[in-house]
């Protein structure tokens, strides 16, 4: 589809771009002679919606130093075309940004040009150079322009089902909450780290705050993981932002509250009491929003667990649907829920987004498939998300036990064109068992362990 004419629009947009660049230090003088150790300068890749047809959007690149400097640091950047083309999809830039002496962060903005074309996300890149007492973490950063024109009034097609793996292939590595025992769960730090380590899917839980913002957190309250207390539904986003989401994290253990103080190695980064690791910010250790995750991980598969809308006033499912559409995330996301009501509400407002079978519906299908039973067609979902057995399901009485993931169940699910995604598998032996059974995905608190197994040739995989 040809792009709409912009002959009258472009001069105004280019003028706006020049006005924006005026905010950067226009001096050509180099910074003062450096003193002290060089700082690491990081420019994060980022995504942003393109904007409405005839309007503008923006891609915001976080820029930060790992320590402040006594003199200004200048970041020179130049946009380079990818699938996105300058002056058609975004406004070209060849400028510099100043990180003032004594500060550590800035925001690099590239303006995008909206249109009405239905098209995939498009990339461009930034070529980077630095002057001053700093060194670059990388010499380029990627920008993704998300298409925000998609309609979502038609059910998705799962022919073929993209969440099924081919026979003999390894399962997807689902980083449960970003890796509960590997990293501080549900933080941007965890998701960045586990993505770099090779996880295929970033799994995150989404709650709604008192002021109807969407945040990533697993529990109803903040007590287990942060230095605060109270339920998410009663706290505003600003109040949540003040908390340390890595406060109780202990490496390889999760969030015990009785470990020695020295074990809480990430404690205080979020609140500025200790510096973050190189390449990270204090913000990466706070409770993030869903939009922040969509900006940060435009090319990673994401699993969003829908939680109940506790106050019933925030239009929870519609908000999530609108945000996913704004970032063009329909075919690379699964929306999952144990709450059938939340799953059904979401399905009603976002039929184009992939979903998994919710608890009550799934229970009936699993029980009905036992023995010679079969699973009927389930066109409205793409996957079962199930535990190996019923002992992990809190809603099941202790005196009832059923092995869920068996060769028979996997065969029945695949016959109904449903992927089998198994949670929460943390022992090496059980990971190998699930791989041998041929499941499509393994959700684990230990994605680093699973990654090491999957990186090992099949004939050499074993548990110490």
TrEMBL record:
Domain GP-PDE: 171-454
Protein name: GP-PDE domain-containing protein
Molecular function (Gene Ontology), one example: phosphoric diester hydrolase activity
Superkingdom per UniProt: Bacteria
PANTHER family assigned to the protein according to its UniProt record, in alphabetical order: GLYCEROPHOSPHODIESTER PHOSPHODIESTERASE (PTHR46211:SF14), GLYCEROPHOSPHORYL DIESTER PHOSPHODIESTERASE (PTHR46211)
Gene Ontology cellular component terms for the protein in this record: membrane
Signal peptide (from-to): 1-21
């Amino acid at each position: 589809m040809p792009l709409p004419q912009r002959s009258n629009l472009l001069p105004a947009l280019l003028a706006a771009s020049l006005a924006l660049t005026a905010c950067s230090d226009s001096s050509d003088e180099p910074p003062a002679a450096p003193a002290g150790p060089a700082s690491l300068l990081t420019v994060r890749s980022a995504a942003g919606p393109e904007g409405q047809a005839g309007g503008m959007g923006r891609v915001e690149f976080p820029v930060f130093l790992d320590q402040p400097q006594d003199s200004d640091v200048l970041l020179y950047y130049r946009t380079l075309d990818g699938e996105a083309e300058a002056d058609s999809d975004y406004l070209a830039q060849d400028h510099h940004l100043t990180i003032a002496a004594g500060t550590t962060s800035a925001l690099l903005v590239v303006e995008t040009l909206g249109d009405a074309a239905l098209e995939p996300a498009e990339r461009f890149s930034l070529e980077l150079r630095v002057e001053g007492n700093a060194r670059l973490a990388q010499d380029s950063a990627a920008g993704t322009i998300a298409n925000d024109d998609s309609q979502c009034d038609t059910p998705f097609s799962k022919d073929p089902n993209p969440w099924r793996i081919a026979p003999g292939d390894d399962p997807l590595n689902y980083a449960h909450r970003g890796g509960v025992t590997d990293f501080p769960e549900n933080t941007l730090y965890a998701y960045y780290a586990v993505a770099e380590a090779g996880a295929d899917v970033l799994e995150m839980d989404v709650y709604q705050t008192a002021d109807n913002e969407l945040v990533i957190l697993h529990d109803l309250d903040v007590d287990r993981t942060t230095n605060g207390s109270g339920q998410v539904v009663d706290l505003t986003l600003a109040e949540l932002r003040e908390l340390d989401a890595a406060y109780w994290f202990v490496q390889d253990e999760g969030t015990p509250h009785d470990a020695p103080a020295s074990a809480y190695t990430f404690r205080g980064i979020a609140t500025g009491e200790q510096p973050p690791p190189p390449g990270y910010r204090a913000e990466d250790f706070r409770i993030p929003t869903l939009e922040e995750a969509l900006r940060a991980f435009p090319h990673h598969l994401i699993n969003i667990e829908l939680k109940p809308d506790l106050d019933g006033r925030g239009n929870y499912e519609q908000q999530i649907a609108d945000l996913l559409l704004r970032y063009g995330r329909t075919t690379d996301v699964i929306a999952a829920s144990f709450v059938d009501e939340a799953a059904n509400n979401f399905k009603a407002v976002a039929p184009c987004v992939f979903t998994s079978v919710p608890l009550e519906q799934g229970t009936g299908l699993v029980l009905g498939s036992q023995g010679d039973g079969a699973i009927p067609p389930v066109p409205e979902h793409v996957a079962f998300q199930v535990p190996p057995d019923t002992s992990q399901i809190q809603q099941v009485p202790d005196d009832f036990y059923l092995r869920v993931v068996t060769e028979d169940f996997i065969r029945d699910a695949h016959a109904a064109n449903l992927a089998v995604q198994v949670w929460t598998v943390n022992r090496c032996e059980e990971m190998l068992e699930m791989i041998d059974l041929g499941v499509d995905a393994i959700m684990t608190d230990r994605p680093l362990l699973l990654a090491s197994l999957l990186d090992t040739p099949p004939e050499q995989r074993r548990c110490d």
